[in-house]
Design a protein that fits this description.
Layout lengths: L3 E2 L6 E2 L2 E4 L3 E4 L2 E3 L4 E5 L21 H28 L4 H23 L1
Antiparallel strand pairs: 1-2, 3-6, 4-5
Helix pairs in contact: 1-2
Length: 117
């Protein structure tokens, strides 16, 4: 195998392949998984070993985590209000209201995780 330079730790290395997860099926069998999804440096474990440009220092920082709180609250309020308007337009159905609440929570959670990471 050919050796390459890791741009993070500046060592010559052979990249390790990261495989997707699988589910244990019993008696030592594995179901699914095993597909290559990424590679990393075996020394510094960075998946960005081949990137010359550094990622933004704001990514994952305390500033982004603090900013995510009001943004996710605003997003939840907007989604919740829109789902309530939709439910009242459809005759005040309880099912539509619950679907709106659950959808608002899930969408807000996913947005918050995306924004911070």
């Amino acid at each position: 195998m050919s050796r390459v330079l890791c741009n993070r730790c500046k060592r010559m290395m052979v990249p390790r392949v990261i495989l997707s997860r699988s589910i244990a099926g019993g008696w030592g069998w594995r179901i699914g998984g095993g597909k290559p999804i990424s590679s990393c440096c075996p020394f510094c474990l960075s998946e960005h070993w081949d990137v010359v440009v550094e990622p933004s220092p704001l990514r994952g920082s305390v500033l982004m985590k603090v900013l995510s709180i009001p943004l996710t609250l605003i997003m939840f309020t907007l989604l919740f209000g829109a789902s309530n308007e939709l439910a009242s337009y459809m005759g005040g159905s309880a099912i539509v209201q619950w679907i709106g609440v659950i959808g608002s929570v899930v969408a807000t959670y996913k947005f918050g995780r995306w924004f911070v990471n």
